[in-house]
Amino acid sequence: MIFRKKISSTFVMLIAVLRVANAAADPTWDGHTLRVTDGVVSAAITPISDDVIRVRVAKGDRFGRDHSYAVVTTNLGPIQAKATIGPNETILKTATLTVHVQHHPIRVRFANSAGETLDADNNEAAISFSGPSFRVAKDLPEDEHIYGLGEKSGRLDKRGWQLGGYNYVMWNTDTYAWDSSTDPLYVAVPFYVAMRHGQAHGIFLDNTWRSFFDIGRQQRDALTFGAEGGEVNYYFINGPRPKDVINRYTQLTGRMPMPPLWSAGYNQCRYSYYPEKRVRQLAAMFRQKQIPADVIWLDIHYQDNYRPFTWNHDRFPDPKTMIADLAGEGFRVVTIVDPHPKVEIGSVPFDTGIAGNYFIKRADGSVYTGKVWPSMADHDPAPSVFPDFTMPAARQWWGGLFKGLVDCGVAGIWNDMDEPSVFVAPTGTMALDTVQDNEGEPASHRELHNVYGQLMSRATFEGLEALRPNQRPFVLTRSSFAGGQRYAAVWTGDGTADWASLRQSISTLLGLGVSGFGFVGSDIGGFVHPATAELFTRWLQVGVFNPFMRTHTDLGNPDKEPWSFGSDFERMNKEAIELRYELLPYIYNALHETAVTGVPAMRPLFVDFPEDEAVAAMDDEFLFGSDLLVAPVLWEGASNRPVYLPKGDWFDYWTGEKVAGGRTIDAAAPLDTIPLFVRAGGFIFRQPVVQHTGQMPGNTLRVLIAPAADSTAAMYEDDGISLEYEHSDFLVRQFHQIRRDSGVSVEIASVGGSRIPAARLLELDLWAEESPKSVSLDETVAGTADDRRVLPRKSASELSAADEGWTWDGKMLVVKAHDNFGRMRFLVEK
Ligand code: MIG
């Protein structure tokens, strides 16, 4: 263990001796950065916005290169910062924060404008260095909750878990059959959100070395983080709401770009689908059974002896024709590409990589080789070389290698093994003293290990972007680092097909979401071992509300398709996937919110209800978007479950029944039912079921509106595939309901973009206990009473065949009209 269990008294004495030996200089403030040295360490504290303060601390006074793979900009807008340098302390003030910097020894404390301390260095331990490593100790109040830290096992509230556990470690690792106590996993994000009394802030340690976070374990009232090398380089991020913290963190590290719409559909994978005939049969089965699906995934067996960028032509004689035929059926194909070309003179990746000097080197300068998949090949096995993705030219070269796959029509790329994973090596990864370019300042794998996957997915993303201009790249990666949300969706690797892993998948995905990764999912049904029918169905129901929805299973397991478990289960599985497609306009809208604000679609309740202490640690139910609360069944044999509803009114999605929140209810949940609740005033954007996303244009937009006195929501849409939305080819519409005793009005207005979608009908679904007297529509800009058109009342079957009118079935009022994509005002009179 590199980090001491306790700061020993000798260590403290050593600091005292050093302090005497080095004279400290007076603090300086140049209008941007406060510089302080206490003789042992130097600190540079820079407010980069009113709500984000950067803290750098180095041993002595030597700061290294200012460089980051995570941060995209520190230009976060206008800022007014003032420093008042006193004899013992400098007070730095922005519009919203006060930073107290003690000079001797250096201690930092952040307070809000009301003077409440948000984060403070632990007075005793604070900042210390030991050899190349450092640690920072913060006070951890008894009632503070800690979230995030990327892809983690255990519970949502890291603190609760930590008390019985261990340090959280950041070191990307291939963890086959991981469970709720495995750490670290595949993705490192040294960022956490702290919340106390409903007030949130965040700390992002921008350091790629192996790092650790000790949350009240060694010392109940201290949160300690540190790394094996590099500088103390962290950002304090202000709230006060959790959404503010996530928003600012993703302003700093970037947000996921709009994904292609098809990738938000249903994805079917296994290890591995082959040969071509099998793939065609699979596609045909979906269409024949009318179970919606958009994507079929090809795992490593499509390749020739596991060599990246090849096809096994015995299994896939004509991939281009196969992919074109599948496209005709509305399917896309995603193929896996791992980071380990085979050592093989005469093969393009190896030859061009050697020629360009793009592979990682051993400490002695020779090319590093390691055994991964190509060494397991039946034919002519050989070790692999590893592209150095920290070299910009190597990233560009790697991106260009996708040309063959893109020319075949492959729609997206799946990056696996990019921790990187190396077989046979004792560490499971490459030698730590291998050397990488590090964007011009060579460094060891020890420093760069954690960014391997992030930079591989970056190279893949940028390659696809260049090869298919004006189309959104789609990349899925197993490994990543802070900021990796800019390049790829993430799945949680090789979990197990058991109920504990299903439960675990939720807190892990919620934690990823809080950590900036909003486009995430777990292997539906679990990866390791076969799934039981019941487990698969329940997992699929959870998967409907994973931002990224993909079924996958391990080599050797029986098939895991929606129809693999008999006809009863097939019906329920079909219903779950149909629900995904019905909700796609809402899901896509929530993904857009992530792209714009960083706030994940699948999110913990505390994000929207920070003031409700009851939800602070809740991770067996969650929100999808702001208006849906999802309480999936996570226990074998259960046919009901307790559901906590935060304060306010909720509506049962299935029955429309109004349920008062602020309490726990018992929800019925037979095997074909997912307990789902709509927040009062919520707007759920839906459509009739389609078989794939290609069928969406022209489909009716169905808007379910949960009652409230006054509520609004915005809905975003675009072409789902190109980058034209960056040039205003999108449409944002504002929906506004107002309820009075006399009735309800629903007003729709276009508030952004210039897109006119394909002609379609618009349907409003309103729960109503009595039949309205009349329903009218005003489509004029001015909107006086005279402009209203009364819509005809119809029977349900008449309405389903008609373009305009309304019907009431005793519970639900359904109103239909042509969508004019502009202003529409519906008036329902009681
Ligand atoms: O060494 O490509 O997590 O999803 O099916 C195993 C084969 C490599 C691990 C991935 C898994 C994938 C499998 N891969």
First-residue to last-residue Cα separation: 72 Å
> What are the segments in which pLDDT stays under 50 over at least 5 consecutive residues?
1-21
Overall mean pLDDT stands at 95
How big is the Rg?
Answer: 28 Å
**Tally of helical segments:** 16
Largest sheet: 9 strands, mixed
Total E-strand runs: 49
Q: Which structural class is indicated by helix and strand composition?
A: alpha+beta
Q: What ions, cofactors and ligands are bound? A: ligand MIG
DSSP helix fraction: 10-25%
Shape: globular
- Provide the β-strand percentage band: 25-35%
Characteristic key phrases:
nine-stranded mixed beta sheet, binds ligand MIG, 20% helix, alpha+beta, disordered N terminus, 830 residues
How would you explain this protein's 3D organization?
- The chain is of the alpha+beta class and 830 residues long.
- Strands 1, 2, 3, 4, 12, 14, 15, 18 and 26 form a nine-stranded mixed β-sheet that branches.
- A hairpin with a 6-residue loop joins strand 23 (435-436) and strand 24.
- The radius of gyration is 28 Å and the shape is globular.
- The model is unreliable at 1-21 (pLDDT under 50).
- Ligand MIG binds next to loops.
In short:
This protein is α+β, with helices and mostly antiparallel strands. The protein contains 16 helices and 49 strands.
Question: Any chance you could write out the topology, listing elements then pairs?
Answer:
Layout: H1 9-21, E1 28-29, E2 34-37, E3 41-49, E4 52-59, E5 82-85, E6 89-93, E7 97-102, E8 107-112, E9 117-120, E10 127-130, E11 133-139, E12 145-150, H2 158-162, E13 168-170, E14 187-196, E15 199-205, E16 211-215, E17 222-227, E18 232-238, H3 242-253, E19 266-268, H4 276-289, E20 295-298, H5 319-328, E21 332-336, H6 348-356, H7 392-400, H8 403-408, E22 412-415, E23 435-436, E24 443-444, H9 445-448, H10 452-467, E25 475-477, E26 480-481, E27 489-491, H11 499-514, E28 520-521, E29 523-524, H12 533-543, E30 549-551, H13 567-582, H14 584-597, E31 602-603, H15 605-608, E32 622-624, E33 628-630, E34 640-645, E35 649-652, E36 658-660, E37 663-668, E38 676-679, E39 683-686, E40 701-705, E41 710-718, E42 730-740, E43 743-752, E44 761-767, E45 774-778, E46 789-790, H16 796-801, E47 805-808, E48 812-818, E49 824-829
Helix pairs in contact: 6-7, 7-10, 12-13
